[in-house]
Amino acid sequence: MKIEISTITDNKLIAYNIWKMKIDAPSIVKQYLGAGQFIQILVQSSWNSPLRRPMSIASVNNNEISIIYKIFGEMTRILSEKVPGDKLDILGPLGNTFVSDKKNAIPVMVGGGVGLAPILNMHNEYLSQNNNAILILGARSADEHFLQHDPDNGIYLSTDDGSAGVKGTVINAMDKYLDNFENIEIFSCGPEPMLKAVQQYAINKKIPAKISVESYMGCGIGICQGCVVERPNNNQSENSYHEKYSLVCIDGPVYKSEEVIIV
Amino acid sequence: MDLYTNPKRSLLSRISIKLGKVEFKNPVFVASGTYGYGSEVSELADIRNLGAVVTKSITRLPREGNPPPRIVETSSGMLNSIGLANIGVEEYINKMIPKYNNMDIPIIMNIAGSSEEEYCEVMDLVESVSSNIVGYEINISCPNVKVGGMEFGVDCELTEKLTSQLRKRTERLLIMKLSPNVTDISAIAQSAANGGADAVSAINTLVGMSINIQSMKSNIHYGFAGLSGPAIKPVGIASVYKIHQSVKIPIIGIGGIKSSDDVLEYMLAGAFAVEIGTANYRDPNVGNNIISDINNFLDENNIKSINQIIGKVKLGK
Question: Which of A94, A124, A148 is the endpoint of a domain?
């Protein structure tokens, strides 16, 4: 990991309230391991807001990384106002990656909200190696999507209002399209209700799944102990360390679906 | 010889400080819980330049800590309710202390407990092995758990008794870490001094709370949490000043330090050293930057030793 004063090369709206920023960050790219990893961005230099913000890496090309974000609060609003040439203090790459555990399985990549960033990243990494992959993206309506529903190429969209792809959630899309496949493995990132539903889907269908979880984060490097998620073990003792709670920043953000409790 | 001919060495000596028998090459320490056990940040910062590292609070047994959410950012600060998640003293002795023996930086071990016996037992266990730990900082001020020692930190008699029990057990530096969540922090500092402490560090976090108005839920699992960061600096400065005015004990200033200006402010109020906390989360290198900025300040103002400014604040117009 490195702290790098990077340079923004592009920052634009790609769908309804969904922004994509490209950042020239050669020393972070050098250490990059793969889809799933994230960076910690110091959005502004004022100490009114002391902490960095974690953002998944959405792509890596040459010396450039990209992130995808929604304007959600003050920090993401400031981020959206940055222009090419602006400097950005980032820490990374952090965390682990999406890794397949199942040989010859077709990966099904399921993303929603800004959780689609690492999912898109993984999808592009697979395609660039000429591997088959299925991509399922969920949103509230068509204007939040920036890809087309394209079943012939393994890209399936869902929308709450039915304005693009399957009406309903990503689970409705999975129900509709995945039953024909024999050997699949799920990778997912998105809002907590979606992850919970994907977890349940994977249990019901006995499909292995990995999910990337979001957490409020302090340092991003395992020191502050702030970003924990609970592990589903039977250890009721308080007198252990790192068994009941896992640190998202260094143990995650990608977990086997059965190894993390989504609240 | 080197000391006089090597400009870098002589610069260092100008900002070096002494507490008891221990000399620190500068007054910039990192606070407990904000630098892990000392080795985690090695990829991002050269920790050897720091005055000292205060390691994360250690209890007798390991602790998982509190359920999430544990942290949230607030205006110029953050709330944390980690709940003293830590590896426990046995693993500290087995895994960390051997590392410290190879690290070229003074380590101050922070201890937390729920009873006098627990504090004493942890210290006895550490004292029974050979280590190059230079001292102990005793956390009697964690607001987030019952075992945080808070009942000691708000009570003069308990503070004095605990301090004297620990004093009997070690010749290493004994530093009592004080809470701002009291009526009169200097009274607690006096009790620590009476018990034989070498120094006090002040302040630990202030009790705070934050609520999400959309979900109508507390942003922290247990509601109350500890407020840190630049938001609390004036409280820290006032606490150090108050203690310095009434108690003859060296003070380590803590609370919202992010720059050399902040360090100098704490020293003018009466601190002989400081600990950087929340700012480390943003940049683990902040301590190194502060140290070089302090040197620049001394140059510009023609001050021969950092010790000359301790407690030199003037009141009035």
Answer: A94
Which ipTM did the prediction report?
0.94
What would the two tokens of residue A47 be? 């100490």
Beta carbons of A50 and B76 less than 8 Å apart:
yes
The 10s digit of each residue's pLDDT in A175-193 is: 999 988 889 999 999 999 9
With an 8 Å Cβ cutoff, are A3 and B67 in contact? no
By the 10 Å C-beta count (0-12 exposed, 13-18 middle, 19+ buried), A161 is classed as exposed
Task: Say which of B62, B280, B284 has its CB closest to residue A240.
Answer: B62
Per the structure, the count of domains in chain A is: 2
- Which candidate in B50, B96, B112, B142 is catalytic? B142
Q: How far is CA A83 from CA A20, B28, B216, in A?
A: 12, 37, 36
b/e per residue B155-186 (b: at least 16 CB within 10 A): bbebbbbbbbbbeebeebbbbbbbbbbbeebb
Min Cα distance A112 → chain B (Å) is 21
Active site residue B142: yes
Q: Is the peptide bond before B213 cis (omega within 30 degrees of 0)?
A: no
The boundaries of the domain holding residue B130 are 2-66+84-207+229-309
Is B37's Cβ below 8 Å from some Cβ in A? no
B77 → closest Cβ in A50, A219, A237: A50
Stated pTM of the model: 0.94
